Amino acid sequence: MKTMGAVRLCAVLAVASVAGALLVHNQGSSTQASTPIPSATIEPSGIPAIAVPVSPHPWVIDYTWNLLSPNSPLISADQVKGYANSKKPPAEFAISRKPIRVDSITLETADQVKQIPGLASFTKSGGYPLYVVRVTGKFTLGGPAGFANTAQHAYDIIDAKTGNLLTTGFDP
Amino acid sequence: MRIARVLVVAVLGFCFLGIIPVNGFRLDRPQQRLGYAHRTRPCSSAPCRQSAEVALAAARAETTFVNRRATDAQSLPARNVAGYSCHDAGDVGHCYAITAATGASYGFLAADVSTVALNAQDQAFIDDEMWLIDAKCCWIEAGFMSNHTIATKNPLYFWAQGVGNHVVVSYFGGLDATQYGRPAHIQLDGNNGTFHALIVPPGSNAAFSSGDVTIRMSPNAVNLGQELSGTNGSHAPRALFTRIRVGALAPGRPPDSKFKITIASPPTGGWLVVPGQSREPVFYTECC
Question: What is the residue range of B178's domain?
Fold first, then answer.
């Protein structure tokens, strides 16, 4: 009798466990299924160009601090003493170690930036302020194999409110 | 008594079904996906929303590969390849470890790519990414990179487009180091001149999106793998490309034997599980 009792107990426990597991599983599935898939997407926020203004981090772009300092006027290109990693070219695409030349630094609206080739879908819009830094150098372009090419002009687009570097572009 | 034992064993087995070792990978139960601390905004068009929903649904799939090797690899020393020519004054171009397919019309490419601690040196970059390509003119790409020149603490998610000699690279934000080894879902899709690049970071319930990107192209090739620029010092732990899907439209299908591997070292890569088997193909890259 004890053996039969034990068998019954085990059977009941097993059935209850299976039922419980199925219940938990179904609840999990139902929770997942009922969770709405957000239709929102993330707006590209860019990398922080100046996380800490006084930081000695080597990636601080020298001019950016000046651009964003509330008491500092927009500096001109010839005032730029260093660029992206301090006095070295933005050589992630560079094929020569010759210094690049900063041609211009302008404060533009997002709608103006959208006129640049390839930036029609730029995520900022309207009058949102952006700094556009145009440089000249010799750059080799990233891309799929077989597309390696060079460019002489490049630009960085920096969020004028946050200092975030949003986009880098290259033109022939 | 025997029946009871069988039932108990079955119950215990059922409870442990979520953990199945497979070739060094592990199939994990879905993790609770945390909100992502970036501002969000709705896509402005129906195709953009649909594209994001496909990416988010894929990222929320029942199981995800966890790249145990990525975590292990981070503790391994770099191979210290003594110099390489992955760009120089001779316009050599960059180096790659990719698998590619051509000869069809493509409008969809997606994969889970395990996030790893890429480390670029020498004013250069190294990345893991995917491309949707019209060999005549254009491409769109997305992935994550370490860029020495804009050396942030962690690698960056990015997407880029190329039209002729016009190339535009946009940055989505940094990888979360606490999620290394877990996959980001990366997706490229589009047709009729409108394309999208999307990335769902591990642990996120939202996607980075390029929005609608206008490129007048008809993709006839897809690539996925690693790109390296520079001449020395960069390092990339092993990254795994899993749940690869490719086709003219979502949801695509797994890669087939038409996918060929191209290696221009020092990046290296290959199939850990080759296409055409009953299991999901797995491609890997690592470098230097």
Answer: 44-287
The answer to whether the CB of A140 falls within 8 A of the CB of A149 is: yes
pLDDT, tens digit (0-9, with 9 covering 90-100), for B8-49: 555 444 433 333 222 222 222 222 222 222 333 446 688 888
Domain ranges of chain A: 1-40, 47-171
Q: Choose the closest CB to B171 out of A39, A44, A58.
A: A44
Total structural domains within chain B = 1
The DSSP code for B48 is: H
**Inter-chain residue contact A42 with B149, CB threshold 8 Å:** no
CATH of the domain at B217: 2.60.120.200
Residues 4-33 of A with CB under 8 A from B: 6-7, 10-11, 13-15, 17-18, 21, 32
Residue whose entry in the numeric block shows the structure tokens 């006095």: A87
Q: Which of residues 108-137 of A touch B (CB under 8 A)?
A: 117-121, 123
Chain A, window 74-103: residues with a beta carbon less than 8 angstroms from a chain B beta carbon: 84-85, 88-96
pLDDT tens-digit map of A105-142 = 788 899 999 999 888 888 788 998 888 888 887 776 77
Residue B4 domain flag: no
Alpha-carbon span B90 to B113, nearest angstrom: 32
Contact yes or no for A106/B99 (Cβ under 8 A): no
Mean pLDDT score across all residues of chain B: 79
Longest Cα pair distance anywhere in chain B, in angstroms? Answer: 79
Domain presence at residue B220: yes
